[in-house]
Amino acid sequence: MITLALSKGRIFDDTLPLLDAAGIQVLDDPEKSRKLILATNRPDVRVVLVRASDVPTYVEYGGADIGITGKDTLLEHGSQGLYQPLDLQIAKCRISVAVRNDFDYAHAVRQGSRLTVATKYVAIAREFFAAKGVHVDLIKLYGSMELAPLTGLADAIVDLVSTGNTLRANHLIEVERIMDISSRLVVNQAALKLKQAPIRRLIDAFAAAVAARNPASQSPS
Ligand code: AMP
């Protein structure tokens, strides 16, 4: 049995076509069912639904053999002991700094200045501002980051941006792009040895599906 860890939402939706191309169909709809273990048309493959930030943990400790998770999650929560064979090029977005559109960010990030930043991505934000020589007070949030600058909780936020619609709707502007994000395949190291043939077949099928969908950019990173 191969267990694949996924999180609900964007990653799940974007993974279904890749699974399909690999000949795997998930038999339950997670939006309609409360099941956390989903069967597939393949008796030897099942999907477990976990919180996005828990995917690396499940795969690292063998609760799942394979997982799909964002680069943001891997950077923020660590990716020790995980084999990362493939950039799936799904759930693409970027992690950016945003502020209220009336906030003078350029002035605020002068060397030696101090900025209050609210984010779920404390490690990524700390490293980014440290490299710029900007002192930051970081406030950890778990959601609705956009609210922080509007209520005076923080000067800036560090969050995922896709279309930019959420920022625009809340009168925020993106002032710096920290990095591009996409989802990665992660594999448990022991499973890769013990279930080598079926896992390799699955990785190869995913790689072929990704290459077919993205003919211009085939190099993993
Ligand atoms: P958008 O309005 O399209 O810019 O999307 C921004 C909102 O969706 C923010 O609340 C983000 O945290 C979230 N978001 C954007 N892209 C992703 C992604 N790839 N995975 C998870 N959340 C995302």
Write up what this structure looks like.
Its EC number is 2.4.2.17. Keywords: Amino-acid biosynthesis, ATP-binding, Cytoplasm, Glycosyltransferase, Histidine biosynthesis, Nucleotide-binding, Transferase. Residues 51-206 form the ATP phosphoribosyltransferase catalytic domain. The protein has 221 residues and is of the alpha/beta class. The chain has two domains: 2-91 and 182-213, Periplasmic binding protein-like II (D-Maltodextrin-Binding Protein, domain 2, 3-Layer(aba) Sandwich), CATH 3.40.190.10; 93-180, D-Maltodextrin-Binding Protein, domain 2 (3-Layer(aba) Sandwich). The chain contains nine helices and eleven strands. It is elongated, with a radius of gyration of 19 Å. The model has no long low-confidence stretch (mean pLDDT 94). Bound molecules: adenosine monophosphate. Adenosine monophosphate (AMP) binds at residues 10, 70, 91, 93, 159-166.
Gist of the model:
With 221 residues, this protein is an alpha/beta fold. Helices cover 33% and strands 30% of the residues.
CATH architect. name of the largest domain: 3-Layer(aba) Sandwich
Quick one: overall form? elongated
Chemical compounds bound to the protein:
adenosine monophosphate
Name of the level-1 CATH class of the largest domain: Alpha Beta
CATH fold call of the largest domain: D-Maltodextrin-Binding Protein, domain 2
The biggest beta sheet reads: 6 strands, mixed
Helix content: 25-40%
Category from helices, strands and their pairing: alpha/beta
Number of beta strands: 11
Beta percentage is: 25-35%
The stretches of 5 or more residues where confidence is low (pLDDT under 50) are: none
Strand order of the largest sheet: 2-3-1-4-11-5
Structurally, the number of domains stands at: 2
Calculate the mean pLDDT score and round it: 94
| Span of the ends, CA to CA | 29 Å
Task: From the alpha carbons, calculate the radius of gyration and give it in angstroms.
Answer: 19 Å
Tally of individual helices: 9
Order of helices and strands: EHEEHEHEEHEHEHEHEEHH
Mind telling me the CATH superfamily name of the largest domain? Periplasmic binding protein-like II
